[in-house]
Amino acid sequence: MASQPDFTAIQAAALRSDRFRLEREADWKRLEAIVGRMERGRLRSLSDEDVLALPVLYRTVASSLSIARETSLDAATLAYLEALVQRAWFIVYGPRASLGSWLRRFLGGGWSASVRAIWLDILVALAVMVAGTVVGWLLVAGDSEWYHALVPGQFADSRVPGASREALRDTLFGNQDQNALAAFAAYLFSNNAQVSILAFALGFAFGVPSLMLLVHNTAVLGAMLWLYHGAGLTLDFVAWLSVHGTTELFAILLSGAAGLHIGRSMAFPGQRSVMQAAAEAGRRSAQVMTGVVLMLVVAAGLEGFARQLIDDTPGRLLVGGAMLLFWLAYFFAFRRRGEGGEAP
Q1: Among candidate residues 50, 24, 26, the one with its CA nearest the CA of residue 37
Q2: CA nearest to 170, candidates 155, 161, 180, 162
Q3: CA angle 73, 79, 83 (to 5 degrees)
Q4: Residue 337 within any structural domain of the chain
Q5: d(CA 106, CA 287)
Q6: Burial of 122 (0-12, 13-18, 19+ CB in 10 A)
Q7: Does residue 226 fall inside a structural domain?
Q8: CA 107 vs CA 1, 43, 184, 288, 331: distances in Å
Q9: What is the dihedral sign for C-alpha 219, 225, 229, 231?
Q10: CA–CA separation, 200 vs 75, rounded Å?
């Protein structure tokens, strides 16, 4: 049983809490009503007075919460105020745009503007990818043992140096080896997705690891091109790869350029601090990488359906070429009205 002084202290605390609530509860309830209507999307039901009063009420309730914490009021009042302040914060300071409006802005010019802003890094990454392809070709042309070092061993079935033209052609057309073909295409997609992510993530190391990944990845492509070229199937292989490859390789190009953009900004920050330059480049590159994820999803769809359904070289070249033209037009020809240039 509590002693008389303890009981008196409890009564005093309860009285203080009740008085505190009664003096301010009207503002709490009004803010709660406004926030509730806004959370339910009933903005039209709000009066001009309510809209103007929202930030004032938020600061008032936040002040009440601060006082309640300092004076150790009852737990129920504290929990109520904390929840109300948190809800009101998202209304007052939270993002105004919905996912749909953000997506419209992103696809309607935000993504392409970020890509154009790193055009110099894209050119460097493209040159490195071309060089990697040439290096892969020259290595296996000089010594065919390099082919086994570059191309994963699980695909060294009929796609090996010395294979007949018919055996190599069967890997590109018809249904004779669809399981192996699907496995090889799945490997290409998963490998390219990993390369894209790593090329971006390692950009902080001044872009050097990003460029090395691009060289290694495209060296595999160069080795495969050499193999099919030796059998007179260069165009057929390019057509088979282009169905999803123009999108996938473009995604790798952008991810490598995004990583290089961060590394280049850190190495040459100009008048900015290194951290400020990295932060600015990181925000721009992150937007590019968000689009890269979408490109990889598109490539997966092309790989899973179009590549399987189209079984002739002209049709494959048509699809691959159309996708390449689409991406080039979207990134470098499509601009929002009034959009200005952005320095790399």
Answers
A1: 50
A2: 180
A3: 135
A4: no
A5: 8
A6: buried
A7: yes
A8: 69, 27, 31, 11, 10
A9: positive
A10: 48
**Residue 48: predicted pLDDT:** 80
- The C-alpha atoms of residue 328 and residue 146 are separated, in whole angstroms, by 34
Count of helix runs (H) and strand runs (E) in the chain: 14, 0
Question: How many Å apart are CA 327 and CA 142, to the nearest integer?
Answer: 36
317/235 Cα distance (integer angstroms): 9
**Separation between Cα atoms, residue 166 and residue 157, nearest integer Å:** 14
* Orientation angle between helical segments 119-142 and 234-267, nearest 10 degrees: 130
197 and 83 together in one domain: no
Which tokens belong to 312?
A: 């002739």
pLDDT of residue 183: 60
The per-residue pLDDT for 303 is 78
Per the structure block, which two tokens stand in for 270? 């100009």
Query: 321 is written with which tokens?
Result: 């070429």
**What tokens were used for 111?**
């993504």
Say if residue 19 is in the same domain as residue 166. Answer: no
The residue range of the domain holding 40 is 11-92
- In total, the chain counts a number of residues equal to 344
From CA 282, how far away is CA 323, in angstroms rounded? 28
Do the domain assignments include residue 33? yes
Provide the pLDDT for residue 343: 42
The reply to whether 163 and 280 lie within a common domain is: yes
pLDDT means over runs of 10, the chain (344 residues): 50 61 85 87 78 86 84 78 87 67 83 93 95 96 92 72 90 63 62 79 79 90 95 94 92 93 88 86 91 89 77 93 95 66 43
Single-letter residue type at 240: W
